[in-house]
From TrEMBL:
<dbReference type="InterPro" id="IPR052163">
    <property type="entry name" value="DGC-Regulatory_Protein"/>
</dbReference>
<dbReference type="Pfam" id="PF08448">
    <property type="entry name" value="PAS_4"/>
</dbReference>
<dbReference type="InterPro" id="IPR013656">
    <property type="entry name" value="PAS_4"/>
</dbReference>
<dbReference type="InterPro" id="IPR029787">
    <property type="entry name" value="Nucleotide_cyclase"/>
</dbReference>
<dbReference type="Pfam" id="PF00990">
    <property type="entry name" value="GGDEF"/>
</dbReference>
<dbReference type="InterPro" id="IPR043128">
    <property type="entry name" value="Rev_trsase/Diguanyl_cyclase"/>
</dbReference>
<feature type="domain" description="GGDEF">
    <location>
        <begin position="179"/>
        <end position="304"/>
    </location>
</feature>
<dbReference type="InterPro" id="IPR000160">
    <property type="entry name" value="GGDEF_dom"/>
</dbReference>
<protein>
    <submittedName>
        <fullName>Diguanylate cyclase</fullName>
    </submittedName>
</protein>
<dbReference type="InterPro" id="IPR035965">
    <property type="entry name" value="PAS-like_dom_sf"/>
</dbReference>
Length: 304
């Protein structure tokens, strides 16, 4: 090269600088490149570029360098797209330029070390994965907490807290839409006798079966709630006609008296049911519960 100071300048640059002839014979290999590659310039000079850096033997790079020699348009290769250009220990961005010195064509390759950036990116990705994992765990725990807060532990149906939450919502909808809201009060008759006769474990399983029967008999958006030890409330929103109610009531009535096989016992289970409607039987949820309880008690008396 004509400029005697140029090699000294290139030796001080914190980038790997490689100069080659047109035929890719290496004529310059600066100290920073020695650190990246691991070989001294004394062993590298005179060798072909793609012999020293086998990754550049790929047809893609061969064509790119041929194009560079002809057109002189600079090229850039990102470490994100082209990994391990020098080795696995260092990730580099690569710039290629053509330099014309008189009649001589020189190719200059700049290897910009971005290993530390890659490490930080990988750390960030690791942190993101950890945060994602923690977020998933938190969501799962939130579901557990919500289930404990809003669902009956024994039967899995809604508890009073969830019932009250939906009851107010459905009552407001019924008022706005001018529709009926049904509230069913269900009592498991003689449940104490079932516990005393078959044991509390079996009694708990029977209670769970009753909750399942009520859930299966109602619509998807109806709310089945365990209201007390042997009592359930069933919230029936959006009752537009009595036909809507009768379809549900018929399914529940079919299970009003039945045998449940549990723990080897055939257990007779009967239900007493009362149903109240907004607005005919009350304008608040409390009024509807009181009226449905009265109807349930009357049903219990009639069935004796």
């Amino acid at each position: 090269m004509n400029d005697a100071h140029l090699p000294g300048i290139l030796n001080c640059i914190n980038e790997g600088i490689v100069l080659t002839k047109r035929n890719l014979e290496i004529t310059f290999w600066n100290p920073f490149m020695e650190g990246l590659h691991g070989e001294k310039s004394s062993k590298i000079l005179g060798q072909k570029l793609d012999d020293v850096l086998p990754s550049l033997k790929q047809p893609f790079f061969s064509r790119a360098m041929e194009q560079l020699v002809v057109s002189g348009n600079p090229l850039f290769f990102s470490a994100a797209m082209h990994r391990d250009l020098i080795n696995e220990q260092h990730q580099v961005n690569l710039k290629m330029n053509r330099v014309q010195v008189g009649d001589e064509v020189i190719l200059m390759l700049e290897f910009i070390d971005v290993t530390s950036q890659f490490k930080r990116i990988n750390q960030l990705r690791c942190y993101v994965r950890q945060l994602s994992h923690l977020n998933t765990e938190l969501k799962q725990k939130e579901k557990v907490v919500e289930k404990l807060a809003y669902y009956d532990r024994l039967t899995g149906v809604a508890n009073r807290a969830l019932f009250e939450k939906f009851a107010d919502k459905y009552l407001s909808l019924a008022k706005r839409r001018n529709t009926m809201l049904g509230l069913m009060f269900v009592d498991v008759n003689e449940f104490k006798m079932i516990n005393d006769t078959y044991g509390h474990d079996t009694g708990d399983k029977v209670m769970t079966r009753v909750a399942s029967l009520l859930t299966e008999s109602t619509r998807k958006h109806d709310i089945v709630c365990r209201y007390g030890g042997d009592e359930f409330l069933v919230l029936l929103p959006d009752i537009r006609t009595m036909k809507d109610y009768y379809q549900i009531a018929t399914r529940i009535e079919a299970n009003k008296r039945r045998k449940i096989i549990q723990d080897g016992y055939s257990i007779s289970v009967s239900l007493s049911i009362g149903i109240s409607f907004y607005p005919d039987d009350g304008l608040t949820i409390s009024e509807l519960i009181i009226r449905a309880d009265e109807y349930m008690y009357a049903d219990k008396q009639n069935s004796r």
